[in-house]
Design a protein that fits this description.
Largest sheet: none
Number of helices: 14
Structural class: mainly alpha
Radius of gyration: 19 Å
């Protein structure tokens, strides 16, 4: 096995390329920088080959398992580019996978997450997921709470569009989940403006989450945290994704990078519970 063999396997295998993945992990001192370079070259438009594009589904998960903080900035830029993110992670798999990847590779600087959340051209759900990631990292004390409080407080003056959008739901949810009661008046105004879809969040649910966060300032039991967390084993994570895809559509004849294409974090869970995927089996 060599690097070229592994990348070829990542892009062409119809089954999880476990042997190639394990080889890359075992040789991480050499392959880690190559994985980082591959992501950066793709995001920067230097290498847009089909081979590279197809291999990044697996490569990004390996970077996450290794908690490769040096790749965090490039991964945030990938998340901001809907077309390229779709091409590598799958149209709906983006929101099920990228938050976990960003949590896993976080380098201590939230600025790339801020930029992602404020990039109006980026996918609205991905922008919102950046705020959920920010909230998670704050709740787990990887970002100072005061810094996130100040950022979320100033965000409404900059956040676009000034209209109903998923990102406003995520902003209000982050405030509630972190128990930032001092910002409740701003949230109430956004509700009054009609910028938050009531099917996603209403004032009563907002206050329930906020009070719950205040009552348990270090807990993460609220439903809004479901599905958020780092990737442990990339092999186990992708195997779970493969199993979920097979339940939805038996024996898909797609490359491994597309296994999550048919189920998104906010889609109905394929298990039939009636809950959203992010609030059901994704957490498992």
């Amino acid at each position: 096995m060599n690097w070229d063999d592994a990348i070829t396997a990542f892009g062409t295998s119809e089954e999880l390329p476990v042997e190639a993945m394990q080889w890359v992990l075992d040789e991480w001192a050499t392959t880690g920088p190559q994985c980082r370079s591959l992501v950066a070259a793709y995001v920067d438009g230097i290498d847009l080959s089909e081979r590279t594009e197809q291999s990044l589904y697996v490569v990004t998960h390996l970077l996450a398992e290794q908690q490769d903080t040096a790749s965090f900035g490039a991964l945030c830029r990938l998340a901001a580019d809907r077309e390229r993110c779709d091409s590598t992670l799958g149209e709906d798999g983006v929101t099920a996978t990228m938050p976990a990847i960003l949590i896993s590779t976080f380098d201590g600087d939230p600025a790339p997450l801020h930029r992602l959340a404020e990039t109006e051209e980026a996918d609205a759900v991905m922008r919102g997921e950046a705020l959920f990631v920010l909230a998670y990292l704050t709740r787990t004390r990887q970002i100072p709470e005061a810094a996130t409080y100040e950022y979320l407080a100033g965000l409404p003056a900059r956040l676009q569009p000034q209209a109903r959008d998923f990102v406003w739901f995520a902003w209000a949810s982050a405030i509630a989940l972190l128990g930032f009661a001092g910002q409740s008046a701003r949230v109430e105004q956004v509700f009054h403006n009609g910028w938050i879809d009531p099917d996603l969040l209403n004032p009563a649910l907002f206050w329930d989450d906020l009070r719950g966060a205040q009552a348990d300032p270090h807990g993460m039991n609220a439903a809004g945290w479901d599905g958020l967390g780092p990737i442990g084993s990339a092999i186990e994570w992708l195997q779970s994704a493969s199993d979920a895809a097979e339940e939805i559509e038996p024996a898909p004849m797609e490359p491994i990078r597309n296994l999550l294409r048919s189920v998104g974090r906010n889609d109905p869970c394929p298990c039939g519970s009636g809950k959203k995927y992010k609030k059901c089996c994704l957490a498992a």
